[in-house]
Amino acid sequence: MAPGAATLKARTSPAHGRRPRRAPLRVVQEFSRPGRKRRNRTQLLGLAALALVLGSLLSVVAARAYLTQGQVRLARLQTQLDKQLGMHRDLELQVANLEKPANVLAQAQRQGLVVPNKVSDLPQVSLSSPNSPTTASTTASRGTGSSPIAGIQQGQSVPGSSTTESSTSGSSTTGLSTTGLSTTGTASSGSGTTSGGR
Amino acid sequence: MRFLIVLVFVALGLRLVALQVFSSHHYASVSASQLTTDVQIPAERGGIFDRNGAVLAISVPRSTVVADPMLISRPGQVARALAPVLGLPEAQLVSDLTERSGFVYLAHRVSQAVAAKVQAMGLAGINLLPDSERVDPSGSLALGLLGQVGASGSGQGGLEYQFNSLLAGRSETVDEEQSPSGVTLPGSAHVVMPGRAGTGIELTIDQPLQFATEQSLSTAITTSHAKSGVAVVMNTQTGEILAMANLVADPKTSRVSEAPENLAVTQVYEPGSVFKLVTFSAALADGTISPGTVITVPNNLSIDGWTFHDAENHPTEQLTATQILAQSSNIGTIEIARSLGASRLAQQIAALGFGRGTGLDFPAESAGLVKQDPTTWSASDIGSTPIGQDDAVTAQQVLDMVNTVATGGVFVQPKLVRATVSASGSVTATPATEKHRVLSAEVSSELTTMMEQVVQDGTAVSAGVPGYSVAGKTGTAQIPDSVHGGYVPGAYMATFAGFVPAEHPALSAIVVLDQPTPIFGGVVAAPVFSQVMQFALHRYGVPTSPQGGTTGGRASPVPFPSAKS
């Protein structure tokens, strides 16, 4: 028995005699409402689910917009790439046009270069006796057996060292123009000199 | 009331299920067909390059301007805006834009700059389609060899046709969703079939030499009033064709231009005396003759009622085999052939590559018309065949034969494509050319010596190249008359084929002129050979011959512009 209950019984007993007994006091449990609690939880869950769905939808829309933006950018870059590629091809074409032999020939002639009338190869010279060439020059080229070509091995060509005699009279060649074949006169310098470069 | 509402919703629900579940595929496809368009994006065609990478043919991006007239409400206004940009008459554009059609072409293959201007206008119903244009930067250089590309983008002849599958690549197929105004919806493009850029080809041709060869041939055609001409230069050891020129003269204006086809392999002709090399090679191989064998050569010879004679009348002579070849004696050659017999001659003709393709597999290439079965020969064929009559061959076949002598008896299959070039730029070499021995080294050496005499003091003195020994053979053959039979009076094919330097052959070449004046190969074709070889030998730095060559001193060729690189 609780100590409080014993004290109460002792004080009332002498004055009034027996009184009807009350149920002993007890500590009551905390008041609870299980139905309401459940309802609150459901509402919260519903809100969360709604937020999730809305969030997901917004995310999808945002992702889609981002993707589309990226694709637009990609398309723009692709267009730019195609444009640059086109420019590259056009430049390649320009280079090829400038490099073509007909153009080089025309440019050279425009700058005063003339077609050599005769190109002669210097003779081969034996290594063992550089002063006595093993071959005779095929044309009246100068420097036969001279020291500048002494080191050239027999059987080896002498690139760039051939003697060029420019023409003393005009010559004409039939040239291929860019649009086809046409006869074009090639003016020779007529300088009468016996040396010159190609 | 409540029941009615439920019924309506149930009906709607059922219809929804029917549309979304059971008919969804049908409606999706109907929608797709109205929204999506298959777009073919042509692959970039591979380029054609020379052996040094110089561009011979290249595809450049272009755009084609198209319109959907159904979407254009004010055609006149659109035409007015487009006319100056496209360079087309306004009336023509109005006519195009008012057609009762959903698709019309306005301008094909406009430049990228023009395309950008059209795009910037933002005209509804006006669209650009990606396209490309084939361009030959060198103009018509080697046109007959390269061929052409048609409007559809596929090769129409020559190498463009032969290697079309390689060059063309594969178009990309893209599914795009388009708005009613024809604008592609962003992000709607899906690649259905990925494309593949075309593969380029690197030829064995050397552009400067090709140019020089065409120059020289052009001059010869012009001065000799020939109808056409062919010249081919080949690397003796590898079979690589360095130049292949095909030119024709306009019958009315005499203007010389590129032949539309590769006459070197498609045109057959009776080769004439250059074919005597077949007879001599067989006779030397069999030991029937040696270079010094003396043969009695009368002025003419009758075989089966046909009289054969030499180009010039002469008394009966005693000539060595070398002299017979150098002077190109028909009678002497026939005498040698008779001692060989028809079977042996036919065997040698086949062994030297006549009567079959050269291995180039060039479009419309001819195998020639050669009597390969000796049992079908008439009695007079033993007189005509050894001197290059009755059989028809291509210039390339003749060159292959001469090249066989140059290589010491090894037949080297000619080659035109050196490598393939992928879109990424990686170069893959083509397989090495096929080779097989036909003549012994000894026979080749003897024949070379005899051919040197042809240039030294025979019929082709003008084929000489200063500083080099030249070996070769001329041919002057009548042209068969396909209408009346026999031969066309006064019409001849002039040929010279040879190689340089004779002691270590590096280059072989053939020059053929159709109906030149004068008619002789040694007079009109040989100088072209000399000019071309002089250019080529210097360009490639080929060593000169010892003693300056046996023939060089006599030659005074017309020079070419230097193109050394």
Major sheet size, sense and barrel closure of chain A: 2 strands, antiparallel
Oligomerization: heterodimer
The geometry of chain A reads as rod-shaped
**Mean pLDDT figure of chain A:** 63
By DSSP, the count of extended strands of chain A is 4
Give, in spatial order, the strands making up the sheet with the most strands of chain A.
1-2
Distance N to C terminus of chain B: 99 Å
Could you tell me how far the N terminus lies from the C terminus of chain A, measured between alpha carbons in angstroms?
A: 135 Å
Structural Rg of chain A: 56 Å
Protein model, in words:
The complex is a heterodimer of chains A (198) and B (565). Helices cover 45% and strands 10% of the residues of chain A. Chain A has helices at 3-16, 34-99, 101-110, and strands at 118-120, 163-165, 171-177, 180-186. Chain A has a two-stranded antiparallel ribbon. In chain A, strand 3 and strand 4 form a beta hairpin. Residues 1-13 and 132-198 of chain A have low confidence and may be disordered. The relative contact order of chain B is 0.11. Residues 552-565 of chain B have low confidence and may be disordered. Chain B contains 18 helices and 24 strands. In chain B, helix 3 crosses helix 4, helix 3 runs antiparallel to helix 5 (112-121) and helix 11 (276-286) crosses helix 14. Classes of the chains: A mainly alpha (198), B alpha+beta (565). At the A-B interface, helix 2, helix 3, strand 1, strand 3 and strand 4 of A face strand 3, helix 9 and strand 11 of B.
